[in-house]
Amino acid sequence: MCGIVGYVGREAAAPILLEGLSRLEYRGYDSAGVAVCTADGLSVHKAKGRLHVLSGMLDGGRAVQGTAGVGHTRWATHGAPSDANSHPQVSRSGKIAVVHNGIIENYAELKDFLQKQGVPFASETDTEVVAQLVEYFYENGKADILDAVGRCLHRIEGAYALGILCADTPDQIVAVRKDSPLILGIGDGCNFLASDVTAILRHTRRVSYMDDGDLAVLTREGIQRYNRLMQPVEMEITRVDWEIDAAEKGGYEHFMFKEIMEQPDALRRAVFPRIRDGEVFLEDFSLPDAYIRSLRKLYVVACGSSYHVGMVGKYCLERMLRLPVEVALASEFRYMDPIVDEHTLVVVISQSGETLDTMAALREAKRLGAKILSIVNVVGSSIARESDEALYTWAGPEIAVATTKAYTTQLAVLDLLGLYLSKTLGSLDEAERRRILDEMLLLPEKLERVLAGKEDIQYFASRYFNLNSVFFIGRNIDYALGLEGSLKLKEISYIHSEAYASGELKHGTISLIEDGTLVVALGTYGKLFEKAMSNILEVKTRGGDVLALTAESRRAEMSRTANGVISIPDAHPMLMPLLGAAPLQLFAYYVALMRGCDIDKPRNLAKSVTVE
Ligand code: F6R
Hints:
Elements: E1 3-8, H1 13-22, E2 31-38, E3 41-48, H2 51-57, E4 68-74, E5 89-90, E6 96-104, H3 107-116, H4 127-140, H5 145-155, E7 158-166, E8 173-178, E9 183-186, E10 191-194, E11 206-209, E12 215-218, E13 223-226, E14 232-233, E15 238-239, H6 255-261, H7 263-271, E16 275-276, E17 279-280, H8 289-294, E18 297-302, H9 304-321, E19 325-329, H10 330-333, E20 344-350, H11 356-367, E21 371-376, H12 382-386, E22 389-392, H13 405-425, H14 430-452, H15 454-464, E23 469-474, H16 477-493, E24 496-501, E25 518-523, H17 529-541, E26 545-551, H18 555-559, E27 564-568, H19 576-594
Parallel strand pairs: 18-19, 18-20, 20-21, 21-22, 23-24, 23-25, 25-26, 26-27
Antiparallel strand pairs: 1-4, 1-10, 2-3, 2-4, 5-6, 6-7, 7-8, 8-12, 9-10, 9-11, 11-15, 12-13, 13-14, 16-17
Helix pairs in contact: 3-4, 4-5, 7-13, 7-14, 9-13, 9-16, 13-14, 13-19, 14-19, 15-19, 16-19
């Protein structure tokens, strides 16, 4: 949620900030703004709407002078999208400007305090409190800016990544991070801060991940980092090894489509290096065998699509490990007094590695004594760094708000984890384990075949894109896949959609089926194919239109009953969701395209959800 960027160097800051923000817009796109230090004080420009509105106002940044500045793209929390509520938020004298990602939880109390001191407020945001409070300490305590920021940090509670400018120190930016992502970029005669690497990759590959509670002062000559006690700390510098093209559309109309098509390669990266001579190798995996043997259960904790991966995982992991696997929404887990102890392995799944609910659940599980293994896409992200073990999905940057390649690679890594643990536990028949591993190596090629059939899916989308409501049904692993298919469709096309376990239809849901209701019936799980067929008949008898997803070997049979059939290559039952996800993603994509929706940036959403 919200993207922030900062630059201090020798070049004009505003064009660099705007270009950086264009790569962060996926994080929020209600409004945007920049503040730049000039000879006459801070020059602040903000506009409601997409970044291009601001960019147009500023002639791509050329209209603003100054070589140090901060920028922001917003996903509104406190106060509706408006020019006044956009960031940067400035203090009453105009000397302090702040960009913020996160939420200041005690802002109301602080605002009250400041108002009683006569400080007038110009916005409804929690962020303005930071700007006013820094100025309050700066003026009242006659402190320098760093002291003033330090004192402000003692008073604010919540999550924040902050970029702070002060007109009196025009060649520096103060950066602060707590529970919201922030990285520092080390350039040549210039330095950067950003919510994520993509914003600065054009300028530098050398980055330093800030720790929670860290503060940094950036000048063009260098960066000084401090810990929460304001003691100077060494900067550990990491080199980013992926290319900027990975975060560009590369000729595709939408990031989502590009990312769907990238899935075979993403799977190759996630799977191939981890299977050698019929065994699973997990890099840097250090959980001892004795610990694995002491496990009594696994808990998968995640949000949204990552949670849906956990739902598929429950079916697969329980079969592989013969241990109970619970799956919880991270936002629920932290408040449900979960039964977790040192014999529980908590598997945390997150594309961004920054989702606040997931991070909070991770900390709660740690507090309860569990070990944390995370499956994460963004390298160096907070969740990866706070886990006992982090397995990367290596899907590359995912920019479209709706996840696709992260989902499939998360599934693959979770399967690999299950296979790895099952070897230590001796819980899975060896021949079966080998068969799954061999089949995993075939997945990328099979997925290429699925994607090559995209025109068929486009055709079905053209038949159904005008509907108001769609149901997804399936049993077992297909039900778990249906949850994701339904989320994809609703989040980007705004069509109302629900996923149900097929067996539950008769317990209530079937009353919703009437003439012409579209039901996407998932029947990829061979063992329950006959049951899937019976449910399809029940739906058809009541006038429903059935679009079925099944294995190639079942296509003919399915075609006799369903109104339309999409088929995917046969594979081990546990791997079918890895192939079945792609047609559902494409269906959602084409439906949204035909409805004229903003596919990469659906309304009200943001990619990295760093608020509770
Ligand atoms: C849906 C989607 C979201 C995310 C969820 C968790 O397409 O992308 O539901 O899956 O916000 O995000 P991460 O995986 O970054 O923790």
